[in-house]
Amino acid sequence: MADTFHDRQxxxxxxxxxxxxxxTFSFGSFNDPTRMGFRALxxxxxxxxxxxxxxxxxxxxxxxxxxxxxxxxxxxxxSAGNEGRLRAGDVQLISSGTGIRHSERNPAAHExxxxxxxxxxxxxxxxxxxxxxxKEALLxxxxxxxxxxxxxxxxxxxxxxxxxxxxxxxxxxxxxxYDVAADRYAWLQVLEGILVVEVEGEPEPLELxxxxxxxxxxxxxxxxxxxxxxxxxxxDLA
Length: 238
Fold this sequence. Notes:
Layout: E1 4-6, E2 12-15, E3 19-23, E4 41-49, E5 54-60, E6 64-71, E7 73-78, E8 83-87, E9 91-95, E10 100-105, E11 113-120, E12 130-134, E13 143-149, E14 157-158, E15 163-170, E16 176-179, E17 185-192, E18 194-199, E19 206-209, E20 213-216, E21 221-226, E22 230-237
Parallel strand pairs: 13-14
Antiparallel strand pairs: 1-20, 2-3, 3-4, 4-11, 5-10, 6-9, 6-11, 7-8, 7-10, 9-12, 13-15, 15-22, 16-21, 17-20, 17-22, 18-19, 18-21
């Protein structure tokens, strides 16, 4: 297991009449045995869903499924009776557990919905499904916000997985430093903007843009410097 830069241009690609999707890890028809996930992370998809379209009802089990809305709207309905409308800045969590069926649809007639959907391996397969929605979690203009963790606490989602996730917004000229514990791993996912990353062992800083990611297995500290207004996710992984 190594530290790896995941170039947005090397992702898998799906395009239909209503969906444009990029896949960081193997998903659907994109199958690369060297890209099957990292620690608890199994799926990272960046989706653009056309207006009036969406994913018909389908089943999930085992996974913790997070949806991070960048723009547009998405309607959620599931077999447990949950309904929700996600808007820009919202984060949705479906803990699928023993199994759930759901649909996701863009209710706007002409405006696309832009989102990242991320699946984590869960550790509560014998538990019933659970739905949570965190409003406006990505709308802060600066600073870090804990959006999900295994702990139950106000203002964040509770995961059934040993992962903590921060949503971060930064402006040019700001630096943000992260320490990675010796028994932990990290993943940096850039959502929007341009981010310069300095890590030990790299002779030159890395420049990441929306869709790029950095997998960290040996890194103990990383310093992030936005070159433009930028948004990213930081994952602390067991």
